[in-house]
Amino acid sequence: MPALVDAQRAHAAGVQRLLESYRAVPDGTAVRLAKPTSNLFRTRTTTQGRGLDTSGLTGVIAIDTRARTAEVAGMCTYDDLVAATLRHGLAPLVVPQLKTITLGGAVTGLGIESTSFRNGLPHESVLEMDILTGAGEVLTASPTEHADLYRAFPNSYGTLGYAVRLRIDLEPVTPFVTLRHLRFHSLSDLADALGRLAQTGRLDGVAIDYLDGVVFSAEESYLCVGVQTDARGAVSDYTGQQIYYRSIQHDTGVTDDRLTIHDYLWRWDTDWFWCSQPFGAQDRRLRRIWPKRYRSSSVYSTLMKYEQRFRVGDRIEQLRGRPPRERVVQDIEVPMERCAAFLRWFLDTVPITPIWLCPLRLQSDVGWPLYPMEPRRSYVNVGFWSTVPIGSVAGATNRRIERAVRRFEGHKSLYSDSYYSREEFDELYGGDSYRAVKKRYDPDSRLLDLYAKAVQRR
User: Fold this and answer.
1) Alpha-carbon gap, residue 54 to 33, rounded angstroms
2) In sequence order, what DSSP letters do the residues of 74-94 get, joined into one string?
3) Considering only CA atoms, which of 19, 14, 149 is closest in space to residue 75?
4) Backbone angles phi, psi at 20, to 5 degrees
5) Per-residue DSSP letters for 85-133?
6) Could you count the other beta carbons within 10 Å of the beta carbon of residue 456?
7) Spatial distance between the Cα atoms of 134 and 31, rounded to a whole number of angstroms
8) Under a CB-based contact definition with an 8 Å cutoff, are residues 455 and 420 in contact?
9) 131 neighbors 345 (Cβ within 8 angstroms)
């Protein structure tokens, strides 16, 4: 009980500092957070002035093991949240892949992982949240209280307010996960199996807990099926010399693996999926001397930001007599039945592999207005993160992908560069609903507009 009281007091003090820093922002100046880390990949204009003080909003406030819920500060990372919940044999319903993603960030900016075929997206497990609005008020939003703000908050990216506290559902987990990696030689077979597994939630009559996949080419792709287990036994370790995504690959049939639940949840973080490769972290000689604590998505993300700041990649391309390269870092969702067709188009058009696949189905029967996917319909998240030769106009490949995603009845996440017109953006991301909630909770436009932030890079 003393620890709970201390956590609550620390959180209250953190909220007070946040409000004081909000009041110190001059009129006419956009309100922003001061964040030590970010998982956004949009190019943004340089800003002046200090952001809001979130230093006291980084912890887990309380865990109710009977109700299987957690109260969490908005800037708490999933790394810290998972560490706290696993001690009780519990985990968030969806744990995004990277340790530095915050709970508030995953809710306002969307998140996904291999439980999403059965648990939807992170914001669907939120029971209530305290939000600092643009008007400088801290309001509690839930399905029954300020419900319009609650439903519009996902995909608003901090333009309707900032999550200060969230109460979320948890689910029981076991100490280990058994994995089966299924090899496919055609995209049609892959998509058919993915749809069947996502729909039934079973493989060979056994209920599955986790489902995602990787496409290396049209002739080589895999589904990774995970089942929780209490059974003890040898486990693999992909935080050292071995690399997780390489362990998936095999010639034909099925291979098996085992991980601790902790290592399964963070299996993608050590090598930032496969994006550690350009930094040399997958070279066996360099990997031996690369400190283990620095093999993480946060380190590679920091290195990438320095690369972009000093344009190291463009300078190297110039020395080689080649033009600069366009960054293509995107996650999109298409309906399950369009998955194979989209993958064929992508592999024929965009020179990027591997590609990550993650099935999802929204659990809400009402939907979420700023990311209007159909409730209870199966979709596939397709993630691709690399660079391509620059085109004739800025963002040529990204623009081509945006047009294709619309043709395939899909949506694109807004954490990276976007090129939509205002009219397209409003149509795709609930423009009318957004403006109504924005007017109510940020009447003086102290926070940025979503289009200005996502497309105009402010």
Assistant:
1) 7
2) TT-BHHHHHHHHHTTTEEES-
3) 14
4) -65, -40
5) HHTTTEEES---SSTT-BHHHHHHH----TTHHHH--GGGGEEEEEEEE
6) 14
7) 8
8) yes
9) no
Per-residue pLDDT of the chain (458 residues; tens, 9 = 90+): 667 778 899 999 999 999 999 999 998 888 888 766 666 666 666 555 578 999 999 999 999 999 999 999 999 999 999 999 999 999 999 999 999 999 999 999 999 999 999 999 999 999 999 999 999 999 999 999 999 999 999 999 999 999 999 999 999 999 999 999 999 999 999 999 999 999 999 999 999 999 999 999 999 999 999 999 999 999 999 999 999 999 999 999 999 999 999 999 999 999 999 999 999 999 999 999 999 999 999 999 888 888 777 776 667 766 777 788 999 999 999 999 999 999 999 999 999 999 999 999 999 888 899 999 999 899 999 999 999 999 999 999 999 999 999 999 999 999 999 999 999 999 999 999 999 999 999 999 999 999 999 999 88
| Dihedral sign (CA 110, 112, 117, 118) | negative
The whole-angstrom distance between residue 446's C-alpha and the CA centroid of its chain comes to 26
